[in-house]
Amino acid sequence: METFDYNLKLIIPEMFLFVWALVVIVFDISSKRRNSDSVGYLTMAGLAITAVLLYNFHGGISFNNMFSSDILALFFKVIFLGSAFMAVGSSFGLASDKIKNHRGEYYGLILFSTVGMMFLSSSNELISLYVGLELTTIPLFVLAAFYKDKKTSVEAGMKYLIVGAFSSAVLLYGLSLLYGFTGTTDLTMIKINLSLLFLSAGKIGPGLILAIVMIIAGISFKLALVPFHMWAPDVYQGAPTPITAFLSVGSKAAGVVAFARIFVHGLIAFVDPVMKPLDWGIIVAVMAAAAMVVGNITALRQHNIKRMLAYSSIAQVGYLMIGMVAVSELGIASVGFYMFMYLFANMGAFAVATIFEDKTGSSSISSYKGLSKSAPALSACMAIFLLSLTGIPPLGGFAAKYIVFAAGIQAGYYWLVILGLLTSVVALYYYANVIKTMYFSDGNSDLKINIHPAARLVLVIGVIGVIIFGIYPEPILNFAMESAALFALP
Question: What residue spans of 90-102 are helical by DSSP H?
Fold first, then answer.
């Protein structure tokens, strides 16, 4: 009789956070929604406790290899918890005003989505990976439309729901085709069975090509990678700003780890030039190039800071995927390191945008005129975050881009790295435009912005992360290299 391995000790952090999400919702209802801060602090405490549980890391596999508690999962779980923590910390202003009757549901959905991301990062099998991806995205559909009385928010939720459902269907169909050809949903066995299939037949039929293309398309929707990016600007603009930040970091990191699990682990053979035209590396490299060009050039024309950061995030995914298509230990490590640096800079920039929008009701870039005079500390934080996103040394964004470009050069993608360098110059223009508006344009110098202590903590974490890990990236880079070694790449 077949035995099943249920090592529940490995999923203690996920189980705890799931239960904590229920506790947050019940607490908010039982307290009759009187104190907005207590619910937010309770949520942040749950995330912090989950991080402590992760610190007591136990490697291993459970549920017959469906759940893999490895160093790669641990690395990305830190990113997921960090992005959720910073999103919650940025939400205190709108929780006291705009969502005061649904605070528990708001924070609970963020935690449920984080649980999905954590399960996804540990999935070593197609079904559990897909379930984790759905648990990640379904709460985000609701969160994007959380401003029920605001047309742009409802529109954002509807667009995200429709596009998300379509992309999930495409991905699921691709995964089912992959299962049909290999006879297994286990990613390790898929790699072995595909190698045997190719050796015996000498070629791979069009059905497998279709499966690979559909899986790329399905995950690219989640990543907002060109040409599957059309939903991102409207959703980012309409959703509550902390949720936009969470989407741009947490959701993208989930898509990145899903891509790594499926392609770098399960379909690694198909990045070899011998396998052309099945070389998924070339397909993704072209999409990354398009993302860098389209994202940066379109961002130049934006007057809304959330839309600008949306197109910026599309471009950032393009840079990120340079490391992925390198398919080397340095390449995969650079992807993890880039996401880690992106966490601090992007969450920090959106935190500033949230604070400013809560005070002024505007997310227009022109509204930031003279902000350096009325809120010098807030302006300085925003400038640091934007310069890091540009890749200016010695901030974290520079180290991240340097390592990603180094991985691309090592893999021979010279044209992609050159394009990345050129488009980074374009990015400098629209990031610097925001800084110029804050520091060199006359505006309302009488504007007073009171920053909530939780939001202040988010800004401090972002600034410290960007500066410290920019100057001294070795600890995070070593952690990323250790996680990349899991794939046994050159």
Answer: 92-95
